[in-house]
Amino acid sequence: MRAKTRAAAGVAASLTMVASMTAVPALAVAPDADGAAEAPASCEAVQSGVAAAAVKVADVQGAFAWDQSAITPNETIRSLFQKTVKALCGAQIPVTVENPLNWEITVSGAVDEAYTASVGELAEDDAVQRPMTCTCGGNPAGGKAIVTAEVKGVPVEAMLARAGVQPGANAVTFVSSDGARTVLPLGYVIGRHGVISYEINEEDLSASVGGNNQLWLARTPANYFARDVVEIVVSAEEEAPAVPDEEAAHPNSPNAGVLAGGQE
């Protein structure tokens, strides 16, 4: 009996709160034979009451907006990525380098003219700088595994254009200095504005994520952000590589949630 009374009291309190917030008339709660309040037969009555109240509210206006203009300081990026990068991305690369512009990258495979050039040489003609977000795919709303930075580097599209991609090519493999290989659809890399970065927030990568260079892609989990790329191999596969699983690994970007609401 006590448990029943406590449960009924909780239901009654909840119904009173709903009524006060939404102007829904309080639902009648009749006492049973023992004098304890009975809960409503189902939640449908509450839901229909709330829906009816929503219809009765006139001239409701509101707006929702977000942006990613807040840049994460390099000190914060360094504290996250250089301390936990092995756990997050399995990287085995040094975090400090002398001059990332001297790093050489080879473009090969299904191209008209393979070449090797330093990042500095490539950057002379094709460097870009734009705000981009890096986040782990499993980062929850409000999680810390997400950063937004001013990323400067060489667009992958420009690097491939120099070599001349052959017809039928549909895959691109980023080979890292430790032998790791990241394989992605060619169209995906171009469409997600892939860039080989060498500066983050106007400092060498050693001041933030570490290493010589890093592939950044828009709206893509960080485990695809290949580090210390030494070669980019274009290929024509019978079946294009799978697109990163947007259902299971799509990053929480922007890292936003509704904090408060009101009525005007």
Give a structural overview:
The chain has 264 residues and is α+β, with helices and mostly antiparallel strands. The chain has 7 helices and 10 strands. The strands form 2 sheets. It has a 5-stranded mixed beta sheet. Strands 3, 4, 7, 8 and 9 form a 5-stranded antiparallel beta sheet that branches. A hairpin with a 2-residue loop joins β7 (195-200) and β8. α1 (2-22) runs parallel beside α2. The longest helix is centred in the N-terminal third of the chain and has 21 residues, at 2-22. 29% of the residues are buried. Residues 1-33, 37-41 and 86-91 have low confidence and may be disordered.
Beta strands, count = 10
The number of distinct helices, counting runs of at least 4 residues, comes to 7
Output the structural class: alpha+beta
Residue share in β-strands: 15-25%
Overall body shape: globular
Largest sheet descriptor? 5 strands, mixed
Instruction: Give the overall average pLDDT.
Output: 76
- Poorly predicted residue ranges: 1-33, 37-41, 86-91
How many angstroms does the end-to-end distance come to? 45 Å
Helix content: 25-40%
Describe this protein with a few key phrases.
five-stranded antiparallel sheet; five-stranded mixed sheet; disordered N terminus; 264 residues; 10 strands
Give a quick rundown of the structure.
The protein is an alpha+beta fold.
What is the strand and helix layout of this fold?
Elements (H helix, E strand, L loop, with lengths): L1 H21 L21 H13 L17 H16 L14 E6 L5 E4 H8 L1 E8 L10 E10 H8 L7 E6 L4 E5 H6 L3 E6 L2 E2 L9 E3 L12 E7 L10 H4 L15
Parallel strand pairs: 1-10
Antiparallel strand pairs: 1-2, 3-4, 4-7, 5-6, 5-10, 7-8, 7-9
Helix pairs in contact: 1-2
